[in-house]
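Troubleshooting log. The previous structure file for this entry was overwritten by mistake, so regenerating from the original sequence record. Sequence copied from the archived sheet and checked twice against the printout by T.R.
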Amino acid sequence: MNKMRVFIWLIALIGFSACQSKSGQTTEQENVDSLTVAPTEEEKTITGVVGDASMHNFMLVTLEGDTLFVSTMDQEPGDVSGFESGDTVRVDYIEEEEEPGSSTIPTAKKVTVIGKKAESDN
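Regenerated output below.
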């Protein structure tokens, strides 16, 4: 009977230590996976004319004639404001994926006005 108790305690101890090791490995593995999935953010610059603008994004027509929709979500207002429709701007941005494998959206980090739109005389 005494050997049976020792045997049961030994099995319980092994079981608890095995569970503890696995949970530590899972957390460590999840941390490694989240680091490898995170994309590197390379800042880029593009120049164009502001088309339509709203609170959290604006349309930019590039010098090549391409149309981009640029997000200003979660940016400091002083860094991404001060322009209006028709202004020529230089946009420092990063590209972010909405979901892995989907198209990227340029997110403005800084918008610098390099030319104001010409006011027409009435």
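Helices lie at 2-37. Archived copy saved in two places this time.
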